[in-house]
Amino acid sequence: MDFSQFVEGNALVIRFTAVNVNELIKFLQDNRNISTLILHANGINGESGEVVLANFINAEDIEALANGNLVNLTRLDLIGNKIGDKGAEALANGNLVNLTRLDLNGNKIGDKGVEALANGNLVNLTRLDLGSNEIGDKGAEALASGNLVNLTRLDLSRNRITNKGLEALDKKVSDFISINLLWNRVNILPFYVHKVTATVAPFACLLLLGLGVASFTGAVTLTPTVGIIAALSVAVVAYSIGVLVSKVDKEKHRSPNMSTFDAIKNAFSDVYITRHLEPRGGFPYESAEFRR
What is the pTM of this model? Predict the structure, then answer.
């Protein structure tokens, strides 16, 4: 295969096409200017003539890729390849140490694979997409306590995480710029803002939470003067905590006699709230927030 036809700037982008992983590794080794590798729903064959069923990648092929001394790669995108826990373990134990962005959306990865990723060699990751997998609370707990200390963007949408897993992630939420938890098995919002000061960035944390009948549990102290009790029914909330805090505080200061409820309503006036919708066309694993 002539891989040069798939080169886009410093990226090699191959979608829905079976490739020979040995040839792929050699091409990347010979073209060190390529820092991004995107393989979407590819069948990969490790030996000439042996084609793996489309949409599946052999775990041995992933191991070869992970140990191919591809130190030039900073982004690896394997959406929809169903690599499973073994593939995730191979990536975690490989030498792709310069990766800062890894997208494993739609890969049948469970808790075991996530535990490997959280405690493996990918310590430079700042962005990790694990949406549309089979991750439960143990996986969430592993991410909260693992060695991915540079992680600031995390996508765990469409998994099997419950309130327990979210409570574990609560310990790490202050490290994130954004976290996507749409379509999980949760019904509480455990992310509490304990202290907000003027030094907090306006977009300190973007929360994407899939909620049934969800609520801010208890009177959560956002600032010394403002407490929130709110219920959002069958909704998705995507908002910056820093912006929300600032808006509520401004409303209270602008009108000291205004009730907290009215201040919250005003603050939420430009919050993005929509009902759950299944994708209508396009690749099912694509997520606008995490493709940027």
Answer: 0.69
